[in-house]
């Protein structure tokens, strides 16, 4: 049911785009993140109303694969969870680095450092050029006039999922919007193939 709820949120976001706010962009429609979501939409009959072309559907289906697909799907399950400074669980809410740490630990068994800047400098994470981004990569931004002060997870098609700020909730946004493009600080990739056996998430909604 959580996956159906996540898919419904994705479908709603796909259909509606709000205008950006003056100080921070509003969430925008995400691309559907890959095979699990595509299968879910097909099974529930929700894909047909989108009127997507075969090529577009294939592109969406191929955007996430293997372990990265599971990681992104885990992240999608928490869309709408409120932001809370210092939070690192669904019950408490998430801040940006608490969210990424929770997702990596519970989906692929990789324990990241607690703070965003520590995650950016974590040994074993590969520095990735923006042109080489793949779903599951960590993306970092300078949102507080210091390097690596914000972090999210790349989901494909230029978009990332994150816990934005106080008063907001976990959502998907477009890195190509001027707010995020001007603050992009770099990206990191974990060796997911070498990560521990994934553990199922215990939180439910």
TrEMBL record:
Protein name (record)? C40 family peptidase
Instruction: Fetch the Gene3D superfamilies from UniProt.
Output: endopeptidase domain like (from Nostoc punctiforme) (3.90.1720.10)
Family listed: Belongs to the peptidase C40 family.
Domain of life per record: Bacteria
Q: Which residue numbers delimit the NlpC/P60 domain?
A: 65-191
Q: Which InterPro entries match?
A: NLP_P60_dom, Papain-like_cys_pep_sf, Peptidase_C40
Leader sequence segment: 1-18
Q: Name one Pfam family in it.
A: NLPC_P60
- What SUPFAM superfamilies does the record point to? Cysteine proteinases (SSF54001)
Its keywords, alphabetically, are: Hydrolase, Protease, Signal, Thiol protease
